[in-house]
Amino acid sequence: MNRSKLGLLGSALLLAGFSSQALACASCGCTLSSDWESQGFTSQEGLKLDIRYDYLNQKQLRQGSHTISAANASQVTTPDGDAQEVEKYTKNQYLTLGLDYAFSSTWGVNVQVPYIDRQHSTLGQRSDGSSPADGAYDSHTQSLGDIKVLGRYQGLTAQHNLGLLFGLKLPTGSHTQTGTSTDPSNPGDSASIDPGLQPGTGTTDLILGVYYFDALNKNWDYFAQATVQKALDTVDEYRPGTGYNVNVGVRYMAWQGITPQLQLNTRYVIHDHGAYADPVSTGGTLMYLSPGLSFAVNKQTTLYSFVQLPVYQKVNGVQLAPRYTASVGARFAF
To answer: What spans are recorded as compositionally biased (Polar residues) (predicted)?
Structure first.
């Protein structure tokens, strides 16, 4: 397989976005995750290590496909007649260690270990859009998230450019952390954090996917990928919604050492389920345009940076969304 095809496969999966908490969270909003999965896949045997930092600050309230002010959101009611929760912000930072080992040109395995730093604040229900009310709280969680283990098979074609993904998201992240109440009736007390904002979901999720990549010509490569992630169990009467991802992209290979690329990442998530889930303000459809650059320091080390820019966002109910997502990282081949 030539250099351009090997390079494409690494980028083809760079923005896969399998995260269990990407727009599949509870009433306190969603984590539009930049937990971009499966970096550095190639048909070359051996070990690769990836270290990545992702940042997204969710501070824009949205209802459906439009923005909404906090004051207007406070006047929204659910189908059951309850007051809509009004969130202030959710600031997410992810540090992810990725380990990828290719046993051969046909088989490989990838492990993603995320550390999550998340700050969240909500005004609760029956707020006027500026003052805390029922159920208001602040939280700051810092801990290990849910680890993902993915296998891959690339033996469907002689070119090894059509592959299958299969694996699990494991319940390694805590789903029982608490915040601090800002509710006027009990300020300073311990407050439960909504399930979708916990470092982990508590569930074991099945991940399946298929991808294809090839060269358009000597300078341009392309890829397409589709994945699904579905929780296999319910924990503490909570089950995150099933997520579907479709990603397509191109990259330009004519520049020595520098590789620009452009991807279109689409995600659809069903609302959460369970007695402690919010079936109203969870789930939706997201579409992001994602330009990026990678820089080959040498044969073993590659630096990269990406930004995700929303081109379409339609959320169920009222949820927080980021204006952009930024990522930087480094990959090392051994």
So the answer is: 175-189
CATH 3.40.910.10 at 3-333, yes or no: no
Strands 162-169 and 107-124: unpaired
Q: Cα–Cα distance between 219 and 309 in angstroms, integer? A: 25
Structure tokens at 79: 């189908």
Q: Flag whether pLDDT at 78 surpasses 90.
A: no
Strand ranges inside the chain, DSSP E? 46-64, 66-67, 86-102, 107-124, 137-144, 148-153, 162-169, 178-181, 190-192, 205-215, 220-231, 243-252, 258-269, 284-296, 301-333
Q: Residue 48's CB: how many other CB atoms inside 10 A?
A: 23
Residues 14/36, Cβ–Cβ less than 8 Å: yes
- How many Å apart are CA 157 and CA 106, to the nearest integer? 10
Place of tokens 């630096």: 303
> Residue 142: which residues within 8 A CB-CB, separation 6 or more?
115, 116, 117, 118
Tokens matching residue 231: 């929780």
For 197-240, what is each residue's pLDDT tens digit?
A: 999 999 999 999 999 988 999 999 999 999 999 999 999 999 99
Residue 94: beta bridge partners?
54, 116
Q: What amino acid occupies position 217?
A: N
Judged against a pLDDT cut of 70, whether residue 323 lies above it is answered with yes
- The pair of structure tokens assigned to 287 is 């579409």
Contact assessment for residue 300 and residue 334, using Cβ atoms and an 8 Å cutoff? yes
Q: HEC profile for 160-171?
A: CCEEEEEEEECC
CA separation for the pair 269, 285 (Å, rounded) = 7
Q: Which residues face 143 on adjacent strands?
A: 116
